[in-house]
Design brief:
With 94 residues, the protein is mostly beta strands. The protein contains no helices and five strands. The protein has one domain: Nucleic acid-binding proteins (OB fold (Dihydrolipoamide Acetyltransferase, E2P)), CATH 2.40.50.
Length: 94
Amino acid sequence: MAESTDVAPTERPNGRKVREGTVVSNGMDKTAVVAVVDRVRHARYSKTVQRTKRLYVHDEENQASVGDKVRVEETRPLSKLKRWRLVEIVERAR
């Protein structure tokens, strides 16, 4: 069986989860809070429902500002709540 070279949009070759979201807070030092919206189909009513997760993200240079669209990657626990790190800023807030 040949292995596929395509990588799912939420997965990386190293097996770590990757998410895209919007920065909702950057008041902490080296930490940003990113809201990730996931659209899922309701089991009974078949209506699309938005579910929002707030991820605490390690931002070493404090470069993310509120409103930026960012890509984050799963990492080892960095603190009590931080389990994600900033990979790149996809789009700056206007």
